[in-house]
Amino acid sequence: MTYDVDTPEEYLKQLESDWREEYLLDIRNMILGQSEPSLEESINYKMLAYGQSTNTLFHLNAQKNYVGLYVGDIDKVDPSGELSGGINRGKGCLRFKKSTPPNETRINEFISRAIDLWKQGEDLEC
Predict the structure, then answer these.
(1) DSSP code at position 91
(2) What secondary structure does DSSP assign to 4-23, as a single string?
(3) Sign of CA dihedral 107, 84, 67, 45
(4) Domains along the chain with CATH numbers
(5) What does DSSP assign to residue 78?
(6) How many whole angstroms separate alpha carbon 105 and alpha carbon 115?
(7) In what order do the strands lie in the sheet with 67-70?
(8) Taking a C-beta distance cutoff of 8 angstroms, is the pair 71, 58 a contact?
(9) Tens digits of per-residue pLDDT, 51-107?
(10) Is 126 helix (H, G, I), strand (E, B) or coil?
C-alpha cells in the first residue's frame, strides 16, 4: 500500500487500526530506540524512512498482507540467518505477516546489528 503523505505523522494517521499498525509501531519503536544519535525519521518512496540526511538505512511500510522492513542486503546484516529466522524474506525485505509478531522474533537484534554496520560505514545495499 502506498500513502501519499509528506511527513511521518501523516503516514501514521493514515494507518488502519489493526495488527499491521501494531506491528509497524513495534518495529518503528525498535528502530528509534536502538540508535544513538537517533536516526532521522522521514518519508521516502511513500514509506517511513530511517537514516541521516540522504543516507537511508531502513524503510518501513504497511502492506495489505504484511509489514515490510526494507534493509538492502539481508545477508550482509545476518549472514547465518539466525537473527531473521522465522521471518518471511524477500529481496532486501523482511515481511511480518499476521502470524509473525515482531516481538516474538529476533528483529530487535537484527536492527541493532544493521545500525552498527551502517555506523561503521559498511555497504548494506543489494
Answers:
(1) T
(2) --SSHHHHHHHS-SSHHHHH
(3) positive
(4) 8-119 (3.90.1150.200)
(5) -
(6) 18
(7) 40-44, 47-52, 55-62, 67-70, 93-96, 88-90
(8) yes
(9) 988 899 999 999 999 999 999 999 999 999 999 999 999 989 999 999 999 999 999
(10) coil
Calculate the alpha carbon distances from 124 to 36, 79, 101, 113 in Å: 19, 12, 25, 11
Mean pLDDT of 16-21: 96
Count of residues making up the chain: 126
Ramachandran assignment for 110, one of left (phi > 0), alpha (psi -120 to 50 degrees), beta (any other): alpha
* SS3 call for 113: helix
Instruction: Give the residue among 22, 17, 47, 32 at the shortest CA–CA distance from 97.
Output: 22
Q: Looking at the whole model, is its pTM more than 0.90?
A: yes
- Dist. CA 91–CA 96, nearest whole Å: 14
Q: Which of 80, 82, 72, 81 is nearest to 114 (CA)?
A: 72
Q: The cell 495489505 sits on which residue? A: 64
Answer for the pair 49, 3: CB distance below 8 angstroms, yes or no: no
